[in-house]
Design brief:
- The protein has 186 residues and is of the alpha+beta class.
- The protein has 2 domains: 18-52; 61-183, no CATH class.
- The chain is 18% helix and 34% strand.
- It has 2 helices and 11 strands, in the order ααβββββββββββ.
- A hairpin with a 7-residue loop joins strand 4 (95-101) and strand 5 (109-117).
- The radius of gyration is 33 Å and the shape is elongated.
Length: 186
């Protein structure tokens, strides 16, 4: 017998099939992945929220910082009157107020609580107490600065703001507009 004749031959070769997942199994797997993705997205969102610096919502104000505590706003637009203000730190209350005017002038000095743009952050480092403005740098107690803005009324006179009374003076509030701050060099 020749080698070709001795080899087993089969005229019926059956294809080998590997069973794949059924349609129902694929749907279950997709649902598990979707649920896991959703849970991860919720966890990331919660972690981001927990780690975020608190701040105001659109059209709102919020108190941020420890010492000093400052009031920040997220108003999309405000009056753009030219203001010249002097910043003062009230150490017993841990907050900042702004003075406008001149003691010798007819209108005198008005003391107000500044409503800073939300990008401004409190500063208390190396004996300097005030705020940090990204485009300007630090503005500290005793500095005179200019800004666009105006005296501003809050609903209910700002009664919901959690600050000592001295931090919310009789002069009310002064709105400071975003991208309008500059420190006087004189």
């Amino acid at each position: 017998m020749s080698p070709q004749e001795s080899a087993p031959t089969s005229h019926h070769i059956l294809p080998t099939t590997v069973r794949g997942p059924t349609c129902a199994a694929l749907v279950r797997r997709a649902r598990r992945r979707t649920a896991a993705t959703t849970l991860m997205a919720v966890a990331v969102g919660a972690a981001t929220t927990a780690c975020s610096v608190p701040g105001p919502g659109t059209g709102e104000v919020a108190v941020v910082g420890e010492d000093p505590r400052i009031i920040v706003h997220d108003f999309s637009a405000g009056p753009d009157m030219a203001l010249t203000l002097e910043l003062e730190y009230l150490p017993d209350e841990g907050c900042l107020v702004a003075h406008s005017g001149d003691e010798d002038a007819e209108e005198g000095v008005m003391t107000m609580a500044p409503l800073w743009p939300k990008e401004v952050s409190p500063l208390n480092e190396g004996g300097m107490v005030g705020v940090t403005v990204a485009s300007v740098g630090p503005i500290v107690s005793g500095d005179t600065f200019t800004a666009g803005g105006a005296p501003w009324d809050l609903p209910d006179g700002g009664q919901e703001i959690d600050l000592p009374r001295a931090c919310l003076p009789e002069g009310g509030f002064v709105l400071v507009n975003e991208d309008s701050l500059s420190r006087d060099t004189a």
